[in-house]
Amino acid sequence: xxxxxTLGIExxxxxxxxxxxxxxxxxxxxxxxxxxxxxxxxxxxxxxxVVEVGTQVCNNIEEACADVMLLRxxxxxxxxxxxxxxxxxxTHPFSKWEMQLITDHPRYxxxxxxxxxxxxxxxxFGLHVHVGMENREIALHIANSVRYFLPHIFALSTNSPFWxxxxxxxxxxxxxxxxxxxxxxxxxxxxxxxxxxxxxELLVKTNCIDNAKKVWWDLRVHPFFNTVEFRICxxxxxxxxxxxxxxxxxxxxxxxxxxxxxxxxFIIYNRALVNENKWRASRYGIDGYLVDFGKEMEVNTRxxxxxxxxxxxxxxxxxGSRAYIDHTRYILDNGTGADQQLAVFNQSKDLxxxxxxxxxxxxxxx
Length: 366
Fold this sequence. Notes:
It is built from 14 helices and 13 strands. The mean pLDDT is 95. The protein is an alpha+beta fold. The strands form 4 sheets. Strands 1, 2, 3, 4, 5, 10 and 11 form a 7-stranded antiparallel sheet that branches. It has a two-stranded antiparallel sheet with strand order 6-7. The longest helix has 23 residues. The two termini are 27 Å apart.
C-alpha cells in the first residue's frame, strides 16, 4: 500500500540572529550553499528570513523522516557556518513583520502589488505534506472526504501561540495571519475533477489568478502533481512531530481509498461545519472541544483524535507507519509545540527563552 501513497514533506524554517534572536535576512546565502549539497531541495521564500525545504518523493514514512532529518541537520550546519541560527515555529515569538525584507523575485513582487500589507505581514511558517495518488479523480475523492479530519490533525500541529511579542491566546495564530489571503481555508466539495478544473479555469479567465498554485486552501489537489497536498498545519518543533503528522495524513488517504475500493465512503460534511472545528483547533489546540457532527455534540478533542487513530488503524501496519502514528499519543499526553512554548514562557516570562527553546529542539530527533 505504501507504494500507492508516496510522501513528500515541505517545511519552512525561521532564520535568526543568534545574539538578538530576531528574524534576520540571510540574503539567500543559505539557499546558495544548500544547493551545492542538496540540489532542488532548498529554496527561498517570500520573506528573506525564511528557508523552505522539501524532501524527495519518498516511498514510505521512514524514507521521508530520514530526509527531513538530513534537511534539518544540513540547514543547521550551513546556517551556523554563516552566522545564523534556525528553528521551527508557526510564527516567530516577537519579531515584527514590518522590519522584514521581501525576497527580490517577480512572483513575490506581483503578490505584494496585489495584496499589499496582507502579503507583507504574512510572516508565517508552515508544513505541507504531499500524498501520492494514482490519478486526479482519486485525489479529488480523497480530498473531499478527508476535509472533516483536517481540524483534528491541525490541532496536533499547533505551534504558534505568539505574534509580535504578544501571547495571542491562540494555539495557532499562524492560521489567523494567513486568513487575510484570498482562497485560503477549508475547500469546498467538488462533485468531479471536471467541476474542479472548470473552477480553476474560470478564475484564470477572469484574472483572479494566473495559475492554479494561487489557490492556497488547507488541502488541495495539486495542480501539477498527482498528489493531495495538506497545507493546514503549523511547522512542528521537531522531526518526530512532523513525521507523525505526515503519517496521519498518509494513513487517512489510505483509509479513504480502502473504503472506496469496498464501495464505501466517509460522510461528506459541509465546509462551514468543518470551519467551526478549524476555528476551535486554532484557538484551543488539543485542549478544547471539537464538534462531532454525526452525534451533533461537542466532544473532547483528545477523544476525537483517539477515534481518528482507531479509524485508520487497519491500514497503518501495511503502510509501515505504526511507530510514527503511535507518537500521536505522546503529543496528546505531553502537549503540542504551542503548549511547550507556553510552558517555557509561563516559567521564564521571557520570549528570548522561548526562542532559545525553539532552536534547542530543532534537531532533537536527528
